[in-house]
Amino acid sequence: MVDVIDPKPLTKKDYASDQEVRWCPGCGDYAILNAVQKFFADTGRDRANTVFVSGIGCSSRFPYYMETYGFHTIHGRAAAVATGLKVANPGLEVWMVTGDGDALSIGGNHTAHLLRRNLDLNVLLFNNEIYGLTKGQYSPTSPIGTVKKSTPMGSVDRPFEPVQFALGAQATFVARTIDNDQAHMAKVLEAAAAHKGTSLVEILQNCVIFNKDFYSADVDKQVRADRTIDLVPGRKLVYGKDGQLGLRFRLSAEQGFRVERCAAAEADVWNPAQPSASAAFLLAGMHADPELPLPVGIFRAVAAPCYEDGVNAQVTDAIAKRKPGVLRDLVYAGEIWTVG
Amino acid sequence: MTPPNAHSTAELPLQRLDRVVIRFAGDSGDGMQLTGDQFTRTTALVGNDLATLPDFPAEIRAPAGTRPGVSGFQLQFASEEIHTPGDAPDVLVAMNPAALMVNIGAVVAGGIVIVNSDSFKDADLKKAKCATNPLTDGTLAGFRVIEIAMNTRVAEALAESPLSSRDKQQCKNLYTLGLLYWVYSRPLDATLDWVQKKFASKPEVAAANLMALRAGYNAGDIHELFQGRYEVPKANLAPGTYRNVMGNQALAIGLVAGAELANTKPVFCSYPITPASSVLETMATYKHFGVVTIQAEDEIAAICAAIGASFAGKLGMTCTSGPGMALKTEAMGLAVMTELPLVILDIQRAGPSTGMPTKVEQSDLLQSVFGRNGDTPMPVLAISRPSDAFEMAIEACRIAVRYMTPVILLSDNFIANGAEPWKLPDLAQLAPFPVEYKTGGQPNFDVYARNADGSRPWVKPGTPSMMFRLGGLEKAPHGNISYDPQNHQHMTNMRHAKVAKVADSIPTPAVDGDASGDLLVVGWGSSVGILTQAVLNARREGLAVSRLHLRHVWPLPHGLDAIFGRFRQILVPEMNVMQMCRLLRSELPKHDYVPYNKVTGQPFLVSEMEAVITRQLQAQKKG
Fold first, then answer.
1. Above 0.95 for ipTM, yes or no?
2. Chain B contact for A13, CB < 8 A?
């Protein structure tokens, strides 16, 4: 599909709709919108052939601000709408924008099935560990003990780790990035867009009103190098200001399969395409351990068939094998008799 | 064909009957539905008019021999036009005591009861919770009882077969079928062909079934069980080409036709639910028509995927039953708000909650018309009989794409699994309604610009230069979010006006009978056959009764007020608690409505409706 209206290369501005962006001042969503629009301009993506689909929540206003096709659906169901859309027209480039509540609470079922089916679309999951649009209740990714309006004595339920959730649902591409690191987000978006299959990108996103700086201890500029590790395919698992720290995987009968800190020289090389998702699962679990860094980057990238291709191939095959259906053959079928 | 060993049949008297009602009853595993299906096929080919009513338990295989496990299939066939599967069976075939006890109450006085006497041992009686043996305790007094030791007869007939004795007993239903074919002078050909095709890869099984079928047929005269054979001559059906069809089957074919007439492709998204699943299963065999099917992870995902498909420019469809309708309601609101075409099929079953999944009811009417958050109008249509499903499916597609709206098409369990001869339509006469996708516009075109129907343009993603955003938030006509008070009033009015306008393109229903009188019976949905017959009988008795059936339920067709005004009272029989009656009272308040409601999970009886009509007319005289 060619965008006929503007033969000149499109700029970031061309991907912004005429709608006034209405997130709270300082919200991490602005940075994500900026990065996505820039990525679209840098890669010259076809506006008319792109659809942004979202559910409900602050993040789900995203489609209104993109000068592409857009569908702001209902709470938790963006994955289901996107599934029908992509199956009906596999030629469209579909991006889904969702949040921790939308994707993992009310829409958890659809998220799991989207990932299992592996439709070729890109999911941006804004995780701010809070319900923003309903004004500050804890979310399914909030840590135990989160004190908010609906949990004055602290939340008692264990949070979902979104990356582990995705891996458990057999996701073929899982990555994480941070709203305040535009360069990293660009790299992750590029890899996600290039992946054939469902690409789930968790974006840690600051909610300045209800969960301000919840991630500061890991991602603030002063500590980020020591507190995060970037998972880059083919690179050693090293981190730290001077690249002095490393991670390696170990297996023992006593402690099972585990990830542990080591000297940079002893670090393992990261391969997100390995047959098992176990190592990625371990890395995603490091979040809970204050001794270990918060992983960002690419957890998993493996090839698998896409649902929409399988569904449409069956239609093509049926037409080839049985010839295009003729309505008369359906109506005038079985035993037929004539009266008069 | 001339049956083998037909030498003695001519000696028995051949009696002509106008109509016969047979009910087959046995364990879920006894193959009663199959027996009924085969009898139906053969009877259709003979040229009788017919109607069927399968009645099966919700459990796939309830414990064998118990009353909850009884599966039934009722069939009426006749040499004249009939409208129902019949009130009461003339013949009951009961494969075990449980089947006998569950069904004997329905059989006409003096009716024939054929029982498998091999299955009335103490253990069988215990499973069926019979303290005494109904064959000997007087239960069957007044019926013509024909006891056949079917297990023994089948074992004898298949003595030469290599099958295990257990597998041999699986052929019992074919033995029963053969026996009934003999009694009602039906040819064996259609079933012989069917058995050979069905078991083509298992020749021993095919042979055993054929032997059982023939043995049953021959048993009729050899064993002199019956005092005579019967003949039900061909019916005088309207000239045309016919086939037999079940409601869900006709529905699926109609959806394919509807999408074709709309010049688009259907994307059918469903989650399995009784009694709707067979529509999904049937659509999945139509892939060579370009039909895409998605078995979604739940009811909500099913309708949402269908909405996504409609957004993409295909015709999204979803099919469910009552509880699934409840789950889909939020998404229906999204389709109303975004004004996308969508076909929603509800094969109603008895509720509330899980209710009685295999039993009939019409209790989703008000949910369909009003049951959503906000003021959320949607057209609602109702199928009235199995063959009508074809036409109404097309009608649902037509309204959906012409008015850019979700449409609910109501069916029910009685229609879905019922079968009848279908006078096949002349396909060349079906009027196409091709969709027009808007192209060539500019960004910032008016997403909610309206044509004369009040319908907005359909723009597919992928169309150059027309990028726009849809969503569940209220929008101004140009397509941007608006919280403006006047705008919400305006858009609400527009949504209502659009659905109201659907009435301009639907016919005023015809009155069956005189245009004025004492009583007008107004029905909708699957009661059409029963009401037709009951009103016909009442009119034959000289009562001033007419009938009208609604296929378009919302908006109501034009012209009803004038029609209703010519009758003293309007009788509204429904298998729910006054739902249509309430709707009519609020929409057309000038008339005197009399509700008649029943929610037993069983259809009305013709005799029951005749009594209701007579009683109402007597009350009018007294009043």
1. yes
2. no
Residues 367-426 of B with CB under 8 A from A: 390, 424-425
Asked if the structure places residue A93 within a domain, the reply is yes
Q: Specify whether the CB–CB gap between A301 and A271 falls below 8 A.
A: no
Token couple for B202: 């298992």
**What's the pTM value of the predicted model, to 2 decimals?**
0.92
Distance CA B523, CA B580 (A): 9
CATH number of domain containing A134: 3.40.50.970
Q: How many domains does chain A have?
A: 1
Output the six-digit token pair for A126. Answer: 């804004």
pLDDT at B466 over 60: yes
Yes or no, beta carbons of B243 and A5 under 8 Å apart:
no
| Least confident piece of the model among A315-319, B219-223, B545-549 | B219-223
Q: At what angle do helices B32-46 and B172-183 cross, to 10 degrees?
A: 30
Structure tokens at B470: 């849809």
Nearest CA in chain A to B260: A327
User: Domain of A140?
Assistant: 12-214+305-309
How confident is the model over A182-233, as pLDDT tens digits? Answer: 999 999 999 999 999 999 999 999 999 999 999 999 999 999 999 999 999 9
Q: Confirm whether A279 is domain-assigned.
A: no
B268 interfaces chain A, CB cutoff of 8 Å: no
Q: Is A321 on the interface with B (CB under 8 A)?
A: yes
Going from the N-terminus, what domains does chain B have, and what CATH number goes with each?
Answer: 14-231 (3.40.920.10), 245-418 (3.40.50.970), 517-621 (3.40.50.920)
Edge-to-edge strands, sheet with A256-263: A238-239, A245-252, A256-263
Instruction: For residue A177, tell me if it sits in a domain.
Output: yes
Residue A7 lies in a domain: no
How many Å apart are CA A179 and CA A27, to the nearest integer? 10
Among candidates B267, B334, B468 on the partner chain, residue whose Cβ is nearest the Cβ of A69: B468
The verdict on B334 touching A (C-beta cutoff 8 Å) is yes
